[in-house]
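Hello,

Following up on my earlier ticket. Below are the two sequence lines again, exactly as submitted.
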Amino acid sequence: DTGVSQDPRHKITKRGQNVTFRCDPISEHNRLYWYRQTLGQGPEFLTYFQNEAQLEKSRLLSDRFSAERPKGSFSTLEIQRTEQGDSAMYLCASSWGPRDRYSGNTIYFGEGSWLTVV
Amino acid sequence: SQKIEQNSEALNIQEGKTATLTCNYTNYSPAYLQWYRQDPGRGPVFLLLIRENEKEKRKERLKVTFDTTLKQSLFHITASQPADSATYLCALADSWGKLQFGAGTQVVVTP
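Thanks for your patience. The regenerated structure is below:
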């Protein structure tokens, strides 16, 4: 078990460019979550998947953000036309649980992908 | 709106003492409350989970209490060590596992 893997760990991009982050969850974990964290704050929920289905999106996720989880395995988070306000750490987390509810299983976080928009 | 509050000031404590952190929440009825540790530049690491029908949970030197009437959780680190220095995050989980985090409390343990 290698844990939740995120790539790249760091990304510096110019305003207006598109960026994509990849998350590889722990194998057999059916739930996958994306969070965003800025300095001095706790992580904020963005979206989550149950297998390949995206079940909820936060209002924080504007139209410039899109997330996918094809085949219920890895996930990608794309930010189009980046803005300076998008600078943050993007965290991916995964867990296993029943289809219809969370049962208290441990949620494992990756090390995050740092985005700096200049 | 839902709100989670943790001590915003850093907690400075001497090695060997007990660190106590507070997490208060409003407008929320969580099924689970969780505590995470986060080191600078790293992702959060799960420490403990307590269910709404539980009052207390322990794991090695860690203890969590959960009072759903007061809407408060206390997190204790006993016999603290310099290696315990980190930011500790309180998180409430809904029935889908979506976590809402507090801003965290930094703990600094000095030898």
